[in-house]
């Protein structure tokens, strides 16, 4: 089974375990803040399921209807995650407002906080795996899931400390206040996830450091050509699409030009894993005297 798919399935399984623990902690205590933590875990489970579906679609090979592949499916998952985070935040804010109006004492706070802490430790370990593997496998869905899970861990720690303070001091209003802060935190997280995913859907260019690498490889490997111009890139999941125009001397043969292209393509694929390259050969009079200079 594909490694990305294995991790996506693991996220779903772990999400269900953590959700069960946090729901148990909320039911034991009646805490609005722990309710907010459980609501965020519901989002985690739903988005893990969406990521799993998206990863399966993204792994499909190119076909007649999708000649460039299905890589962008993962971005739809990340956008969906951002939207669901916003919905969960609004539900939490509603519950927090009810808590402000009628603060309630907490039941079995020590046991509930211990269970919630155990769930948070599981989340912390898994979010590290997701972010690390998401970057390694160049999977936007896994990395977005990991970043959201990290915000969940941070907010859970804040909730645990805050609820403990509410119990010790007797300030029951701290409970709904913490829930409201959690909601605002995950709203910010949802905005960042959605913004980054939209960049992928809008065919944003490769990062500057990757573009510099691409231009450097072309300059180094295009010996026999005159210049390369109109270098364009776009990133879709694990694939980086690269296309540019390569100007060759007017007396070059088709075979000679093809050899230069083969050399550039091989070097680019070594430097940029998952690269798909299109090179347009042009005669000498098409030179623009700009772009990438051949070393």
UniProtKB/TrEMBL annotation:
Protein name (database record): Protein p34
Lineage, opening ranks: Bacteria, Pseudomonadati, Pseudomonadota, Alphaproteobacteria, Hyphomicrobiales
Database matches in PANTHER family: MITOCHONDRIAL METAL TRANSPORTER 1-RELATED
Pfam assignment, any one: ZT_dimer
Cation efflux protein transmembrane domain span: 11-202
Cation efflux protein cytoplasmic domain segment(s): 209-284
Keywords per UniProt: Cell membrane, Membrane, Transmembrane, Transmembrane helix, Transport
Major localization class: membrane
NCBIfam families reported for this sequence: CDF
GO biological process: intracellular zinc ion homeostasis
Record's subcellular location: Cell membrane
Membrane-crossing residue ranges in chain numbering: 7-29, 41-59, 75-93, 113-131, 152-171
Membrane topology (UniProt): Multi-pass membrane protein
One annotated Gene Ontology cellular component of this protein: plasma membrane
Molecular functions (GO terms): cadmium ion transmembrane transporter activity; ferrous iron transmembrane transporter activity; zinc efflux antiporter activity
Entries under InterPro entries matching the protein: Cation_efflux, Cation_efflux_CTD, Cation_efflux_CTD_sf, Cation_efflux_TM, Cation_efflux_TMD_sf, CDF_Transporter
Species for this entry: Camelimonas lactis
SUPFAM superfamilies documented for this protein: Cation efflux protein cytoplasmic domain-like (SSF160240), Cation efflux protein transmembrane domain-like (SSF161111)
Protein family: Belongs to the cation diffusion facilitator (CDF) transporter (TC 2.A.4) family.
